[in-house]
Design goal:
single chain, 437 residues, Double Stranded RNA Binding Domain, DNA polymerase, domain 1, 3 domains, four-stranded antiparallel β-sheet, 18 helices, DNA_brk_join_enz, Integrase-like_cat_sf, DNA-binding
């Protein structure tokens, strides 16, 4: 017959005096207070493990851990045993998880994610992302364990950016958090990615397309360009932008060693050597990989004129005041405004890309791959990109760039639609007949 145990009371625990040997005071159901010769009183819990072996757990010292708290710990241990779990093993695992949680903070995981991504990003892009993390995300989320973060936690910095009307920044931050939390899933820190549910949670700005003139106004634009009375290098920059329809930074930071006159080819590197005190001067082709630009006869002729003006410098389009610095980022648009155009409503330098792309597509001559490759657009279909990323389509692109230059010449006197120009007769005097062959 089991011995009846009289439960302990706080006065009895307090009154227990040390003896020569340690002795227990039993409370029942395995819990007892062990009184040591030193006077230290320790709560112990004696139990049988799920595998049948004897187990002994230490809960803490009395009176720091009172009688009521010790009984609560016993109840938790008995509940675990009823579920087939060993209280000691469960406590050990909880400590491991707590340690891992404190080590795997949002900031720690974010920095690992950033280090992994920086291997494929440009230096400037990596620095921009890190700066945004430090300014916008780390102050709010940095010390929080990723395992504790919920959708509402991740939403807070996005809403803060939204309230400042920094909608583009908010969108970028959402992308970063999605990448960071996906990285945490992949490395076993969390089981699911709460950032996925942020999609659509913040406002987005309506896409504002860069202004471009209707094709019918090409003769007017070309006439004003030819009559431009400003700086010669500026006029040539605008004309070349129209012929090769590359991005502003790709043009402004161009070096002479990128242009091969013999091969009629301009190779824009993925990244350029930075120019001291010139913002973003490290930029090359936007996608971070070299972009090849075939040069038409007309483009080569323009570059020959440019070389007469700046050929002794490193930069193709050197600035007005310092030859080692490029022309201003506003130069092309300022010239268009001087010609009488509103660069926010009529046409801007970037709008030349839209005009060229529209004409090339409307001509019906060129495949989507060729036009997209020449525009230096990134293929969004990952599977398709894996197959075509090496395909330069150079011969067809050479024909296409020459066709575009010929088309602009044809429109100097009288407008003709891209389709009509592409379907002229055999004696049209452009590359169409070669293309058809």
């Amino acid at each position: 017959m089991a011995r009846t145990v009289t439960p302990l009371t706080d006065p009895k625990c307090e009154a227990a005096k040390p003896r020569e040997k340690e002795y227990p005071l039993f409370d029942g159901q395995g819990l007892y207070l062990l009184v040591k010769p030193s006077g230290v009183k320790v709560w112990r819990f004696k139990y049988t493990k799920p595998d049948g072996r004897a187990g002994l757990a230490t809960f803490g010292n009395y009176p720091a851990l009172g009688l009521k708290a010790a009984r609560s710990r016993r109840a938790e241990a008995l509940e675990l045993l009823a579920q087939g779990q060993d209280p000691i093993e469960s406590a050990r695992q909880a400590k491991i998880e707590a340690a891992a949680s404190s080590a795997n903070t949002f900031k720690a995981v974010a920095l690992e994610w950033h280090a992994a991504g920086a291997r494929k990003w440009s230096v400037g892009h990596a620095a921009t992302i890190l700066r945004r993390l430090e300014l916008c995300l780390f102050p709010v989320l940095g010390t929080r364990p990723v395992a504790d973060l919920k959708v509402r936690d991740l939403l807070a910095p996005l809403k803060a950016a939204e309230q400042r009307d920094a909608l583009d920044l908010a969108s970028r931050l959402r992308q970063y958090m999605d990448g960071i939390m996906r990285f945490a899933v992949q490395h076993g820190h969390i089981d699911s990615n709460p950032a996925r549910d942020l999609q659509g949670a913040i406002a987005t700005r309506k896409t504002a397309h860069r202004p471009a003139l209707p094709m019918e106004r090409l003769p007017e634009l070309l006439g004003r360009l030819d009559a431009y009375s400003g700086r010669s290098l500026t006029r040539l920059a605008v004309q070349l932008t129209q012929l090769v329809f590359i991005r502003s930074s790709e043009l402004r930071f161009a070096r002479w060693d990128e242009i091969d006159f013999d091969r009629a080819l301009w190779t824009i590197p993925g990244e350029r050597a930075a120019i001291e005190d010139v913002k973003h001067s490290h930029r090359g082709a936007k996608m971070g990989t070299p972009h090849l630009v075939p040069l038409s006869r007309q483009a080569l002729a323009l570059l020959a004129e440019v070389r007469q003006l700046s050929g002794r410098y490193e930069l193709v389009f050197a600035g007005d005041h310092h030859h080692y610095k490029p022309m201003s980022e506003n130069t092309v648009n300022a010239a268009l405004r001087r010609m009488g155009y509103d660069t926010k409503a009529d046409v801007c330098g970037h709008g030349f890309r839209a005009m060229a792309c529209s004409a090339l597509v409307e001509s019906g001559l060129w495949s989507r791959d060729v036009v997209e490759r020449q525009m230096s657009h990134q293929e969004r279909n990952g599977v398709r990109a894996a197959y075509i990323h090496k395909a330069e389509h150079m011969e067809e692109r050479r024909l296409m760039c020459q066709w575009w230059a010929d088309y602009l010449d044809a429109c100097r006197e009288q407008f003709v639609t891209p389709y009509d120009f592409a379907h002229r007769g055999e004696d049209a005097g452009n590359v169409v007949t070669i293309r058809r062959a």
